[in-house]
Amino acid sequence: MNPVQIIRKKRSGGVLTQQEIESFIGGYVAGAIPEYQMSAFLMAVTIRGMEPEETAALTDVMLRSGTTVDLSSLPGRKVDKHSTGGVGDKVSLILAPMVAACGVPVPMISGRGLGHTGGTLDKLESIPGFTTALDIEEYVRVIRDTGLVLAGQTAEIVPADRRMYALRDVTGTVESVPLIAGSIMSKKLAEGIDALVLDIKTGNGAFMQSYDDAVALARALVGIGTAHGKETVGFITDMNQPLGLSIGNWCEVVESVECLRGKNVPDLMEVTYVLGGAMLFLGGKVTDIADGITQCRSAIWSGKAYEKFLQVVERQGGDISFVQDASKYPPSRFVIDVRSTVSGYVTGFATMQVGLLALELGAGRVRVDDAVDPKAGIVLAKKIGDRVAVNDLLARISTDREKAARDAAHELRSCLTISPSPVDQRPFIYAYVSKDGVTPWTTPPTY
Fold first, then answer.
1. Would you state the pLDDT for residue 444?
2. CA 311 to CA 55: how far, in whole Å?
């Protein structure tokens, strides 16, 4: 088929057939369709959208572009989690070892930074020696040995998404619901899971900034997972401020390790515990999510989750001495404190802008081939609801880029809204989504 005709059809709002989608994606993977035509296709989909049958076809074609991992020989129900991405979202680094410590195997294939959001692979690879590039055989061996695996896509697993994912990051086509759904679910269906828990972010730092858009994406993802025989549930969670305190690769690892050692960062840990409780429930280890939350808290308090993290870091080649003593890590050349010039209460964040500032510091990519500086980042000292006095520390910036450091220090202050009176704290979790529908989330009383 003529790829230009397929692009034109979608640009004009037409509904593509399974054959047309398969021809275009297959041609791209084979090298017959160049990146400039794929970029045009991605933009047409972003602007015009896709019907549910097109999204299902896109997911199937992407899934069939590579190999599906078979983990049936391993005991237990394998459960993974996926987040649609946010600023400071380091949940996976805490969640995966916590859930594995509770006896549920966690096969996790993650991505790199996308747009203004950070990527789990970039965070893990900030640990010296940590390897996420595992072939399928090693992927299976790691989860057999440790109960979890934290890997990136291999050449065999969904190669279509691997290339499209990087291209979406630099062509302004990240926010498309069909492209997000196809990307997420093709990877998750290929990694050998039995069930999946989704974290769909909404707010000014999310790709789905409106609640209704987040619900639409959640329904699409749950529907695809259910149709493929994987028990799938999701949570709509808040992204109107960075999650936790750290934004950047190594600094997010440091915060995650602190939480694994028992530090309570309220928004970060509530989301982590609820997602973990759901994973234990789908994994058949508990009778309900509330019981799962209790078990997850116990894994943190006992130190078992932290020990599991050390185990998988060492198993995947990481130097655990840096995890055990973060002060060993080389410092950034430029460290700048950003202080308040007014007093009041923090009432809001320009969250996406904070993520973009971290990217400019070196924590992410503007172009596909950009190198990431693992040390670059922002550590917040204040969150929504906190009292602020003149000259109070708002955040600390770290980078090797002198001009970027100065620019970020100037701009970051304006990313926080400081008002005379406090505002009511938004809930961290808005709703629960399953094949039966969407219901408001009420934190279980045992939490």
1. 61
2. 38
How does residue 445 score in pLDDT terms, banded at 50, 70 and 90? very low
Place of tokens 């999310």: 206
70 is catalytic: no
Q: What is the pTM of this model?
A: 0.90
Q: Which of 90, 112, 116, 187 is catalytic?
A: 187
Q: Which of 60, 89, 122, 161 is flagged as catalytic?
A: 161
Q: What share of the chain is helix, strand, coil (3-state, %, to 5)?
A: 45, 15, 40
Q: Kind of pairing, strands 437-440 and 429-434?
A: antiparallel
The answer to whether residue 401 scores a pLDDT higher than 90 is: yes
- CA 163/CA 136 separation, integer angstroms: 18
Q: Is 161 a catalytic residue?
A: yes
Annotated active-site residue 187? The verdict is yes
Annotated catalytic residue: which of 78, 82, 315, 365?
A: 82
Among candidate residues 78, 90, 112, 168, the one labeled active-site is: 168
| Structural domains in the chain, sorted by start | 3-49 (1.20.970.10), 79-180+188-325+427-440 (3.40.1030.10), 332-419 (3.90.1170.30)
